[in-house]
Amino acid sequence: MGSVEHSAADVEIRRSARRRRTVSARREDGRTIVLVPEGLSVAEEARWVEVMIGKLERRGARQRRAHGHDGAEPSAGQSELARRAERLSRDFLEGRARATSVVWVGNQQRRWGSCTPATGEIRLSERVRGMPGYVVDYVLIHELAHLLHADHGPRFWALVGRFPRAERARGFLDGYAAAAGLVLDEHE
User: Which of 42, 66, 90 is the last residue of a domain?
Assistant: First the structure.
């Protein structure tokens, strides 16, 4: 593993007496905050700072790629996903559900997808990417319907039910989750 260059002014190390074995890091106001156990040696501290900065940089690069902000054109997969969502909204929701962005994300452990109705952003778990097309469509329809009804009430499910393979897709997702031992949020 190579060395990551950083300025000491950009890194703040916070020691904690309550922290016993774990090390974590986060970005805060343009700085890297590394949280370490109080009893960690100076050498171990320096090693962990390098490890955690590397993790943060890799995570940031993944997020920029997933959101099309890596300095290049947005990925064909992402723009295809947004076009797919537009088509599904048009075909099954009279075009009323309009997402402002539709992206793949790798940080959803308990959901197949999520959306923020206030901003129109839709995020699909990377886990769904390799599933059959009708399953991806179902997850998109589910999230698009949330743009119109934020809850899981009868009107929401009536919209989702317009997708002809909704029940089959839910069965696929339930079976996948059971086989993989996933614990998902209810209704997802």
Answer: 66
